[in-house]
Design goal:
heterodimer, A: alpha/beta, globular, B: alpha+beta, two-stranded antiparallel sheet
């Protein structure tokens, strides 16, 4: 009797062919993207999304064309950070037209589709046990975004990853080897420990690990124009990858994020200067590769 | 998943996928030798697993999108209401190129724009005008 491997093809639905076709569609859609950067951490609440948007602003200010894909499907924040709450979604010639900020940063986020008052729910034929299929569904959704948006010509597509060390590496693998990864931590042993775990996991992935950003690296006091300590500084855990910059916590930045605005390009602003420095290092690193 | 006719030692061919029923799926296979038929019946959980992969089950696979029982069920939520505006073929082609879960919202938004601006049909010109109007 024939075994599975004696029979060519699948059960008749060409599932493998469909998956390959989807991958090819994603590749066509991203053909004009020069650099893909995934911004992750492993640790939640360290400012991945905020830094993603601010890094986009800094790259844009330096003349780059930038798009953001909010891959945190369950906790999307890029629509709010971009101030794009009520933006219509329009079908263009090559796919979904990317909504843009006033400065021209393209932003695609579930936050444009699902109101903040609602959670992301999928229609399900099965009642309960969504933990079995939900992750698969989310990657399918992410693939639909990648394939169905008119990304156009971009110097940078920044992908804002969800929290979780295992999710970080899963998303990096899904995005493929052309996507480099930047990790975000805060200066605490707790956070650096989790990020260290993400680094260990990412070393097995095909993605290039560009380095890490230390966020909330002190408190930017606008009164005395100095950076004051915010956390007891951690030196015990060596992350073993380049530090791309240290960004202080700035209340003005937090307020701008809530308003969906960019941090004013204040040359004296310590947070903005730090973010510009990160953008310069990211740019020189990827362009030098 | 493949099916083998044990008597003929031949792989069975997928014949048809019956319309979904309460989250279940009936996929009919036939042996090309003896014409014996079987049906694979999935439970709602199995149906959900396949749906989550974003693939379509049925003869022709990627060519059978409009007949796919999975997408048909998903698209049920976006079935046009009676008061929707007609769309030209080219405009519909554009709509088909955006992610499926975005289409209901895109459709609603563009039709609202069209009504507010006196258009009676959605065509490519309306889509391009909306794009300019919203500064995109």
């Amino acid at each position: 009797m024939k075994s599975y491997f004696d029979i060519n093809g699948d059960g008749g639905s060409n599932v493998v062919g469909q998956v390959v076709a989807k991958r090819e569609q994603i590749a066509r859609s991203l053909a004009g993207v020069k650099h893909m950067l995934a911004i992750g951490s492993g640790k939640g609440g360290v400012g991945k999304s905020t830094l993603t948007m601010q890094l986009a602003h800094a790259l844009r200010a330096a003349g780059a064309t930038v798009g953001i894909l909010d891959a945190d499907l369950n906790g999307p924040s890029q629509a709010r950070l971009a101030g794009l709450g009520a933006t219509p979604l329009l079908p263009g010639r090559e796919g979904l037209v990317m909504p843009r900020t006033a400065s021209g940063i393209g932003v695609v986020s579930m936050g444009l589709i699902v109101p903040e008052s609602k959670s992301l729910d999928f229609e399900s034929f099965a009642e309960g046990d969504s933990f079995v299929w939900r992750a698969t569904k989310e990657f399918t959704l992410l693939g639909d975004f990648l394939a169905g948006v008119a990304w156009g010509e971009l110097d940078y597509l920044l992908v804002d990853l969800p929290p979780g060390a295992e999710r970080t590496v899963q998303y990096a693998e899904f995005l493929g080897s052309q996507t480099a990864v930047v990790l975000v931590t805060i200066p605490s042993d707790l956070s650096r420990g989790v990020v260290s775990r993400s680094i260990a996991a990412l070393r097995k992935a095909p993605n290039r690990l560009l380095g890490y950003i230390e966020n909330m690296s002190g408190y930017a006091c606008s009164g005395c124009r100095s950076i004051r300590p915010l956390f007891p500084h951690s030196t015990a855990i060596d992350l073993g990858i380049p530090c791309l910059g240290e960004v202080p916590f700035d209340p003005d930045l937090a307020a701008a994020c809530d308003r969906g605005e960019a941090l004013p390009e204040d040359a004296a602003g310590m947070a903005w200067q730090a973010i510009r420095g990160v953008a310069d290092r990211v740019h020189s690193t990827v362009e030098g590769s | 998943m493949k099916f083998l006719c044990v008597l003929c030692d031949q792989p069975m061919k997928l014949l048809e996928v019956a319309p979904p029923d309460r989250g279940t799926l009936s996929v009919v296979y036939e042996c090309p030798e003896c014409a014996h038929r079987i049906a694979m019946l999935t439970n709602p959980f199995e149906t959900q697993m396949v749906t989550s992969l974003g693939v379509q089950i049925g003869p022709g696979g990627e060519q059978s999108e409009s007949k796919c029982p999975f997408s048909g069920m998903v698209q049920g939520a976006s079935a046009p209401a009676d008061d929707t505006l007609p769309w030209s073929g080219k405009a519909l082609e554009r709509l088909e190129r955006v992610p499926e879960f975005v289409r209901p919202m895109a459709r609603t938004g563009i039709e609202r724009y069209a009504r507010e601006n006196g258009f009676r049909e959605i065509d490519e010109q309306v889509l391009d005008r909306a794009k300019s109007f919203f500064g995109m």
